[in-house]
Design brief:
By secondary structure, this protein is mainly beta. The protein folds into two domains: 10-393 and 436-464 and 599-725, Methanol Dehydrogenase, Chain A; 474-577, Cytochrome c-like domain (Cytochrome Bc1 Complex, Chain D, domain 2, Orthogonal Bundle). It has nine helices and 39 strands. A five-stranded mixed sheet has the order 1-33-34-35-36, with no helix packed on it. Strands 2-39-38-37 form a four-stranded antiparallel sheet, with no helix packed on it. Strands 3-4-5-6 form a four-stranded antiparallel sheet, with no helix packed on it. Strand 8 (138-145) and strand 9 form a beta hairpin. The longest helix is centred in the first third of the chain and has 14 residues, at 10-23. It is globular, with a radius of gyration of 24 Å. Residues 1-31, 41-49 and 557-577 have low confidence and may be disordered.
C-alpha cells in the first residue's frame, strides 16, 4: 500500500479502459445489500455528515410518509453577508459560523444563542464547516477565522491556551514565503484523524500566491506534525513535472474544497486545485504535479500512497472543487472499497481506495494545443467515460436558447463570434472561447450524497456556459486605465474577475461600477485585503497599492487624473503582463438568462455499481419564468445534498427561487419544498435533539444581489405534538 504509484501512461490507461469496458455488460443494476460501513463515533467526526464525505444520516423520524408536514421549528437571524456553513451538532450543542466568521453555539432545539467567539479581525471568507475532536474528557472545537485556525473549548467558546499561540495558528506561516505577502483562508473544515487535524486552504488566484501545502497539526498543541508539498521540492517525486526552480515562486495547487479520510486504513484523500496563473502557464511548463489531482496520503505521516491527475498543466481553472466521498461498490460478486471524485468538468472519477486503480474506464485523448507563444499545453487529457458526464461537454449552435426568438437571435449572433471546441480548447487572444461546463462546474464545493446500502450517488450540477478571452500585455484600449493611479494594479489583480470595464459578471462577480456609492474607501480597502465570498484576499499588496486601487475604483469619470505613483509591490511585475484573462463572463442573453437551452442545473442519481443513471431532473427555477408558464429550467446552484436512511434527499442550493426541497431518492419525485428567507447555498445537516429530528440549512442573500438580503440558519421539524398537549 505504501508503494508510490506514478501517474499511468496513456497507453496503460487505454488498456485499462478497454478491459473495464468489456466488463460493463456483466455489471448488474444497483445492489440492495452492500455492507454498511462501521458506525462513526459521532463525537469524533469532523463535520456533521462525518468524515467520509457521504452526507448520509441513519435517522428515521422523518420519512416519505410525513416529510410533507415539515415546518419551521426555529430561525437564527444574522446580519447581511455570505453564508455557506454546514452546522455541527455535537455535545448537545449546534455549532455554526456567522457571515463575519464569528463562531456561535446554539441550542439545537430552539436556536437560542449559548455563546459566541469573536476573536481576531473581521473576515468574510466562506467557512463551510467546523471540526470537533474528543478523547476521554478532552474536547476541542476547530474553526477558521481569517487566515488562522482556532481551537475553542466547545462548552464555553474560549480559545484553548495550549494550542498554538493562545488558541490560534497562523496558516500563513511555515510555507517558505513572507507570511505578510500570501493569502491562506481555510474555507473547508479540517479533517480529524486520531490526534491530528489536517488542513488545506484557499489562496490567491494570481501571483504572488501561496504554494499548495497539506499540513497536519497536533490537536492539543498545534505543533505541525507533517506537511505534504503539493508543489514538490527538489528530491520529491513530481518535482520533474515543473521547471527546476518553480517551487520557489510558483503558487496555487492548493487543497481548498475539503478532504475525507478512511479512518480504518489511515488514508487521507485530498483534492487539489490549479496552479497560478489560472489561464497561462508559460512559466510552469510540464504537467504540474500535484495540481488538479486526487491525492491518497498516509494520514499519520503525509507520505503519498497514490495520486491521479485529472487535468495536466491546467489553463482552464479546473480545480477539483468538490470533496471526494467514500463508498462501497459491487463488482462480479465482490465488494470494493471505493472513492469517488467529482469534477468541474462534469466527470466522475471512481477509484479503488487502496490502489488508485480506476473502476470505470478513463482514457487519455488528444486535445487541441495552445497558440500562445511560450505556452505548451498537454497533448492529451484524461476523460472519464463511465458514468457519462453530469453536465454537457460542448456547446453547439443547435443547443442555444429558444426562450424567445429575440434571445435565440442574440445568442446565435454572439456564438458565431466565439470558439467552441469542447472541454480542453485553450483560451486565445482576441476571441472569446466557450467554457462548458462553466467556470462554476459541473460539480461544485457542496459535495455529493451517498446511499451506502445501494452504492448510489446523488449530485447536483451546474450546466451554464461561460466564456474566456485573453489579452496580451497592455492592449492599446487599456493604456488609459494603466496610466491612472491604481489602474495597473486593478488590471493585474482585479480585472480577471471584474473585467476591464469593472462590469463584472453578476451575481458571481459583482460590478464595481459606482462601488464608491455603496462602500466607503475603508470598506473597499478591507475587502481587497481580506476578501469576501468568492473573492480571496490580497494581503500581498502594500497599503499604498490598496489605496491606489481604492482611488481608481472611486474616481469619478470626469475627474482629472493624479500623477501616477510608482507601484510599491515587493514582487516583480507578474506574468499576467503578458497574457491574462479579460474577465469571467457568463454567456447570457440580454435579459440575463443563460444563452444555452435548459437545463441550467440538474440533480442526478447514479448507480456506481454499474455507472448507470437512475434519474436526472432539473434543479431550480427562475420565479419570473415560472410565473409565465415556462417549465422548470434548472438554475445555477451551490451547496450539496444530504441523504437519510428513510430514502429522503434534502437540498437547497438553488439561488433564485430560495427553495429548500426534499426528494424521494428512488424516483427523484419532489415530496416537499419550502421557501427560505434567503438562498440556501449551503449543504444542510440533520440531527436528533430532545427526541425530535431537525433539518437545518444556512441561507443568505449574497449570491443574489437583486433578492432579499440577510443571513439565517433555518431549522425544520415535524409538528411538536408535545406542545399541542401542553396547557396554554
Amino acid at each position: 500500500m505504501n508503494t508510490p504509484a506514478r501517474h499511468p501512461k496513456p497507453s496503460r490507461r487505454f488498456r485499462i479502459g478497454l478491459s473495464l469496458l468489456s466488463l460493463l455488460p456483466m455489471l448488474g443494476a444497483c445492489s440492495s445489500d452492500l455492507p454498511l460501513p462501521p458506525p462513526v463515533d459521532p463525537e469524533g467526526s469532523t463535520i456533521s455528515m462525518g468524515q467520509t464525505g457521504d452526507h448520509y444520516f441513519d435517522l428515521d423520524q422523518i420519512d416519505r410518509t410525513n416529510v410533507s408536514q415539515l415546518e419551521v421549528a426555529w430561525k437564527f437571524e444574522m446580519p447581511e453577508g455570505g453564508l455557506q456553513t454546514t452546522p455541527l451538532f455535537r455535545n448537545g450543542m449546534l455549532y455554526a459560523v456567522m457571515p463575519t466568521q464569528q463562531v456561535v453555539a446554539l441550542n439545537p432545539e430552539t436556536g437560542k444563542e449559548l455563546w459566541r467567539y469573536s476573536g481576531g479581525e473581521r473576515a468574510e471568507q466562506p467557512v463551510r464547516g467546523l471540526s470537533y475532536w474528543r478523547q476521554g474528557n478532552e474536547r476541542r472545537l476547530f474553526s477558521a477565522v481569517g487566515h488562522s485556525l482556532v481551537a475553542l473549548d466547545p462548552l464555553t467558546g474560549k480559545p484553548m491556551p495550549d494550542f498554538g499561540k493562545g488558541g490560534v495558528i497562523d496558516l500563513r506561516e511555515g510555507l517558505g514565503r513572507d507570511p505578510e505577502r500570501v493569502a491562506t483562508f481555510m474555507t473547508s473544515p479540517g479533517v480529524i484523524f486520531e490526534d491530528l487535524i489536517i488542513v488545506g486552504y484557499r489562496t490567491s488566484e494570481s501571483a504572488p500566491s501561496a504554494p499548495g501545502a497539506i499540513r497536519a497539526f497536533d490537536v492539543r498543541t498545534g505543533k505541525q506534525r507533517w506537511v505534504f508539498n503539493v508543489i514538490p521540492r527538489p528530491g520529491e517525486a513530481g518535482h520533474e513535472s515543473w521547471p527546476a526552480n518553480a517551487w520557489k515562486t510558483a503558487g496555487g495547487a492548493n487543497s481548498w474544497a475539503g478532504m475525507t479520510v478512511d479512518a480504518a486504513r489511515g488514508i487521507l484523500f485530498a483534492p487539489t486545485g490549479s496552479a497560478v496563473d489560472d489561464f497561462y502557464g508559460g512559466d510552469r511548463l510540464g504537467n504540474n504535479l500535484y495540481a488538479n489531482s486526487l491525492l491518497a496520503l498516509n494520514a499519520r505521516t503525509g507520505k503519498r500512497i497514490w495520486h491521479f491527475q485529472t487535468v495536466h498543466h491546467d489553463v482552464w481553472d479546473r480545480d477539483l472543487s468538490s470533496p471526494p466521498a467514500l463508498l462501497k461498490v459491487r463488482r462480479n460478486g465482490q465488494v470494493i472499497d471505493a472513492v469517488v471524485q467529482p469534477s468541474k468538468q462534469g466527470f466522475l472519477f471512481l477509484f479503488d481506495r487502496l490502489t488508485g486503480r480506476p473502476l470505470f474506464p478513463i482514457r487519455e485523448r488528444p486535445v487541441p494545443g495552445s497558440d500562445l507563444p511560450g505556452e505548451r499545453t498537454s497533448p492529451t487529457q484524461p476523460f472519464a467515460l463511465v458514468p457519462t458526464p453530469i453536465a454537457r461537454q460542448k456547446l453547439t449552435a443547435d443547443m442555444l436558447t429558444k426562450r424567445t426568438p429575440q434571445s435565440h437571435a442574440e445568442a446565435y449572433k454572439a456564438f458565431r463570434e466565439m470558439r467552441s471546441g469542447g472541454q480542453f480548447l485553450p483560451l486565445t487572444v482576441g476571441k472569446p472561447t466557450v467554457i462548458f461546463p462553466g467556470f462554476d462546474g459541473g460539480a461544485e464545493w457542496g459535495g455529493v450524497g451517498i446511499d451506502p446500502r445501494r452504492g448510489i450517488l446523488f449530485i447536483n450540477s451546474n450546466d451554464v456556459p461561460w466564456t474566456g478571452e485573453l489579452a496580451h500585455g497592455t492592449p492599446p484600449e487599456l493604456e488609459g486605465i494603466a496610466s491612472v493611479p491604481g489602474g495597473l494594479s486593478y488590471l493585474r489583480q482585479c480585472a480577471v474577475c471584474h473585467g476591464f470595464k469593472r462590469e463584472g459578471s453578476p451575481p458571481a462577480f459583482p460590478s464595481l461600477v459606482d462601488v464608491g456609492n455603496r462602500l466607503s474607501p475603508a470598506q473597499i480597502a478591507a475587502v481587497i485585503k481580506n476578501g469576501r465570498g468568492r473573492m480571496p484576499g490580497f494581503p500581498q499588496l502594500t497599503e499604498i497599492d490598496r489605496a491606489d486601487i481604492v482611488a481608481f475604483l472611486t474616481r469619478k469619470a470626469d475627474a482629472p487624473a493624479a500623477p501616477q505613483r510608482e507601484v510599491m509591490s515587493p514582487a516583480p511585475a507578474p506574468k499576467d503582463d503578458r497574457y491574462f484573462l479579460t474577465g469571467y463572463r457568463k454567456f447570457v442573453d440580454s435579459a440575463g438568462y443563460p444563452a444555452a437551452a435548459p437545463p441550467w442545473g440538474t440533480l442526478n442519481a447514479i448507480d456506481l455499481n454499474s455507472g448507470r443513471y437512475l434519474w436526472k431532473i432539473p434543479l431550480g427555477e427562475y420565479p419570473e419564468l415560472r410565473a409565465k408558464g415556462v417549465p422548470t429550467t434548472g438554475s445555477e446552484n451551490y451547496g450539496g445534498p444530504i441523504v437519510t436512511s428513510t430514502g429522503l434527499l434534502f437540498i437547497g442550493a438553488t439561488i433564485y427561487d430560495r427553495k429548500f426541497r426534499a426528494f424521494d431518492t428512488t424516483t427523484g419525485k419532489l415530496l416537499w419544498e419550502s421557501i427560505l428567507p434567503y438562498s440556501g447555498v449551503a449543504t444542510p445537516t440533520t440531527y436528533v435533539a430532545g427526541g425530535r429530528q431537525f433539518v437545518v440549512i444556512a441561507a443568505s442573500g449574497r449570491r443574489d444581489p437583486k433578492g432579499r438580503q440577510g443571513a439565517a440558519y433555518v431549522a425544520f421539524a415535524l409538528p411538536d405534538k408535545r406542545s399541542s398537549s401542553r396547557p396554554k
